[in-house]
């Protein structure tokens, strides 16, 4: 399954919120906690971004495989399933000797829905807020950006490590990315 998503940095939050309140449906706010396991010894995949993420908002926990072949909107393979125990799943993943770099992260997202597209205003420690627009097709994502008038610098489906680097931060190399650190 492909994840079709783009990130937009440097957006006008006040303008976007006004458009969302007028035209989109508010889904809610989530405070996510996650462990990410890089697949560093998987083979010769060059500069690709490949990892497994275990994430929870305290109610729903998921295990997700992602293979990002570039920063394009439709360059990410994604497989996801629900899991029962967030911490136990992280313990199991940490036992796999060929996977390394587990670290804990937090972010807070505000979710909106517009014509079948998901718009997320995301907040992470250390970097400015950004927008993610995810849909079923590139055309749908582009239409949503245009119709809601989302302005800013579109960076595609850039990995979080590269997004943090854009702001002069090391992201996962920083250690735990938690609010209040």
Explain this structure to me?
This protein has about 180 residues and is α+β, with helices and mostly antiparallel strands. It has an eight-stranded antiparallel β-barrel. The protein has a single domain (about 1-170), classed as Hypothetical Protein Pfu-838710-001 (Beta Barrel). The mean pLDDT is about 85. The protein has helices at about 15-25, 85-95, 140-150, 160-165, and strands at about 1-10, 25-40, 50-55, 60-70, 75-85, 100-115, 115-125, 130-135, 155.
Short description:
The chain has 181 residues and is α+β, with helices and mostly antiparallel strands.
Number of domains: 1
| CATH level-1 class | Mainly Beta
Write the H/E string, N to C.
EHEEEEHEEEHEH
Query: What is the CA-CA span between the terminal residues?
Result: 35 Å
Could you name the CATH topology? Answer: Hypothetical Protein Pfu-838710-001
Overall pLDDT, averaged?
A: 87
